[in-house]
Write the structure tokens for this entry.
Amino acid sequence: MAILLKERIGYFRGLFAEQKLTWYCVARAVQGFEAIHRMYKIIADNQTFRSLPDCAPIYDFFEVKVLKDPLLKELLSLLYQFPLRFKFGSHWFLGYTSRVKEIFQKKSTDLADLVVGVGRVEAYLCFARLLKESRGRNSYCFPVYTSNEEPATFVAHGLWNPALKSTVAVLSD
């Protein structure tokens, strides 16, 4: 009897740990969606951003896909209501986590398109930040292409590792 009870307690501890981990993953997704929604609002408020092809997946997700697809609408509703503070003993969030996980699995293609769009915009923002910060000793430049009649060559002056701050980077030709 004691062994059976010990097994049951172990089972519930494992189940609770798994559910808490799922809750944590969903909570992280909520924070990500909040950032994506802020990005969407910036894109939606600016005609220039809306016209950029790399911003289209973000704008289309919220303006087209969510409005047409009840599952995506439900997903956003669940994410916006999700409790970001985990309280020991509160089990009411378990239905949220399982439903969010289920919708994520069903709508993975639509969500993948959104994530690719966000990744592109983030890459451009990072590059813009680096361009702004690099004014001075080390700076970025863009390639200059010569005519097709000349042999292909690669000439570079002052290369440096962009992962390093421009003040500590060593230039190389």
